[in-house]
Protein: Phosphoesterase
Amino acid sequence: MRVDLHCHSTASDGTDTPAELVRNAAAAGLDVVALTDHDTTRGYGEAMAALPAGLTLVTGAELSCRIDGVSLHMLAYLFDPEEPELLAERELVRDDRVPRARGMVARLQELGVPVTWEQVARIAGDGSVGRPHVATALVELGVVASVDDAFTGDWLADGGRAYVEKHETDPFEAIRLVKGAGGVTVFAHPGASKRGRTVPESAIAEMAAAGLDGIEVDHMDHDADTRVRLRGLAADLGLLVTGSSDYHGSRKTVALGEYTTDPEVYGEITRRATGAFPVPGTGGI
Ligand code: AMP
Ligand code: FE
Ligand code: FE
Ligand code: ZN
Structure:
């Protein structure tokens, strides 16, 4: 059984539509795929409608958080998407992405880059707008060669010349809100140091004490040493260990199912969740 618990669609900064994502997941031989768009559940309906037989959909989201000035991502699974408190926080973060992206466009214009908000808005479509969309605009303009190349101090990396902060949730509040909506939390790529500062282990221990369920260990942004360290930390703290592709379609090089989660851990996540159930595919449209 092959389980990939972290994937993005055009509902945020992936390039597959939700329907394409589930079809591609089935074609990649996955049995379970999670849809975890940044700060939104908007892709759920389309993904469910297109879900091929033999593939199970885990509904989720990747929540933007910040602690002591360090940004982090909290994966949330199988929460009730209608629960009002979590919904309100998700909308706050997602809506703040628009003025924030406009702010990054303004910074880039000050730096002499002829990017416009209209261009970024076209690239983002109706997805929750983020830096990868701005990065794609920079690629279109020939400013950088690839999306990855836009994530440097010169451009869009945390603290970079054109970086603008957005509203991000306190992770303890995120854990509380997700639990309140019947969901399960997994700290996404906690050792992804190339993305900027990472959260210290002491803070992860505090999150574990506050009800964090797991950490994502097998991820392309973690080298072998980091995975060993994080596995040890998870064992010490009694946290579940997941692995996932963090697939973004053509915006990243990673393939669906390139990293996977142990089926037993997946089973434990489904047992803990009360806000929603995994959706078995019936054939799709
Ligand atoms: P945002 O949520 O708008 O701040 O953008 C964060 C997104 O940018 C992440 O979810 C990744 O998709 C992407 N990202 C972050 N850091 C990097 C990086 N160093 N290289 C490539 N993509 C990145
Ligand atoms: Fe992303
Ligand atoms: Fe992430
Ligand atoms: Zn992600």
